[in-house]
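so im writing up the methods section and need the Oxidoreductase domain-containing protein record in one place, dumping it here so i stop losing it
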Amino acid sequence: MLGVGNIGMVHLKSALSMAAVDVRAAADAMPENRNRAERAGVPRTYDDYTTLLDAEELDAAVVALPPFLHADAVERAAENDVDVFVEKPLARSSEEADRLLETARKAGIAVGVDHTLRYQPDMIGVKSEYEDGTVGRVPYASITRLNDGPLGRPPVEHAPPSWPLDADAAGGGSLLELGIHCFDVLEWLFGDLDVRDATTDATLDIPVEDAATVLLRAPETETTITLHCGSYQWEQLPEVNTRLRLEGITGTISNQDHLPGNFYASAAKSALSNVASRVTGSESDVFGPTFYLQAHYEALSAFCEAIRNGERPPVDGRDGKRSLELAETAYELAADGDGDELETMEVT
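--- predicted struct ---
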């Protein structure tokens, strides 16, 4: 495990719960993160991922580091003949992704990418219903993905990490953090997309965009799509922060209709368990609310199964690069546009 911060701990708990996976070690620059990993059951921890890769005999590594370290981590893994499962975005740009993938190709290692929406049961339900043809052709679709972003939901108890608010380190703002998921799941549904127009906005006084709206067209299905993503909403789990609607000729398909039947009951049970764990000082259940985090388990499990069988990962580096290309086109159109930015809001 290369990085055991927020999402890294999700991947770690996933891997630890897989019967056919042996977690050997974890690396993180933060002592508190290494301590958490050790408490979770990791036998060895390192303060540097390059040291871990040189010291351990590994089949695969999960790269859950900030985006500016992805390319270097993959290069180091390639030097040690280690396959990689990379947290999205694959890289900060398609050019950086090209270099990363060329390094992997020359070394003969596999690259998987954690595009998790494909593994959520509501998105699987939408795809199944769409492919059944029950609503006929879909002239229009829309997707919205929102959360509270790196600043967190007020009142904020701890300062956020610096890299998500640094465009050079992260590659961008909410369009790259959240929109990248949307691009991937939309091409999974409709095939290749063309980006027609885009705008990015800042509702808060931060260095990266925290809102973006993109107009897309799917030539194969003749579907027009609007995508909106933002990190300005004070989300409250277990509310679902992704809305997907397909407006077909004979009806509508919505991901809201494909949520697990026990979604709220399961989330409430997990929330109560997590509250109790904080009182007793034990580890919280990383899979609760399970709806979101179980999808990360499925994505990593599918990658491991492909590697075990000598197959190409189901969501691989090409998919990761493709989503970056769409995001870059959106950024370019937004920069060239004349749209008015949202007025900056004061949040108290």
